Please model this.
Amino acid sequence: MHRVEKERALSGRERFARLSRTYSLPLAIGLGTVIFFIFHYTPGLNPLKPTVHYLVDTFTPFLIFTMLFTSFCKVELRQMKPHLWQFYLIAFQLSVSLGLVLIVVCNPGTPYKTEIESAVACIICPTAAAAAAIGGKLGGNESAMTTYTLMSNLAAAVGIPLIFSLLGSSVADSFLDSFFIIMRRVFPIIVLPLILAFLVRYGFKKLHHFIITDLKDAAFYLWVITLVSVTGTAWSNIVNAREDALTMCALVGIGFITCAVQFGLGKFMGHREGQRISAGQGLGQKNMVFGIWVVYSFLSPAAAIAPGCYMLWQNLVNGVQLAYKERFDRKRAARGLPPYRE
Model:
């Protein structure tokens, strides 16, 4: 009798853990939204805002770094070979961005400049640091996503200064200066965790084993925590915007459309090589904190609304995907099959 009760309790804990994993992203978005609006509409909390901003600015990069490190510890160097779909996605990222910028260059008086620039920001922005962590939960190939994350960030570092220079926009006096300014933002967050993960894998076997066994889900939950603050950043850009209602609706729509198209197109391009999830996350899940910085550095500030909305849309998409994956794996388990992996 006691054993039966223990099994039921364990089953209850497992159900709770499964539900928390499945709905953690929408819950994090909801929590970040509630916290932001509490601070926004409660004047008595104004003295705390500088402290909160400082804590967010200080700890968010640390959380992302740690998340990437634990995620990259699962990656083997020999598995990081390039795939054809990765080059297709890079070509899409750069060519479509260039085409949209040329529309503005050829039509300098267009009334849709802000909308076009916002679409460019949503497309040229590199893959998010969390793509490998979320993609791994969805059954994607973490090694392939890690390789594409590096490729995408390098492509953005080269493509952004080159393409945006056509608009007369630059954060420095030359292409090389702009390139190194962007790389200074990318390198510590993307490359250093990868180097450290390889050092641990090949130099500290026991620590590496502990990370990939006892901390195997750490990257995912670190992203959930980070998403709370990232959601607040997205709402801040939306609420503090000075655009009219029609433009705001258009920018919100652009964030949604570019998000849906890139997730769908990524899955389509990765289908032939059996890596739909990896390619979909690679193209669809974007580093929009970096994207907002790009907008403020190179484009008009109003264009930052779409990347902020994209940030919310992509995590809602991932929440839906996680819920679907949970149900799909339960059906596989009922047939005696293991969880789906690419």
Q: What stands out?
A: Residues 29 and 231 are 6 Å apart (CA to CA). The first helix runs from residue 2 to 40. The chain has 13 helices and no strands. The radius of gyration is 21 Å.
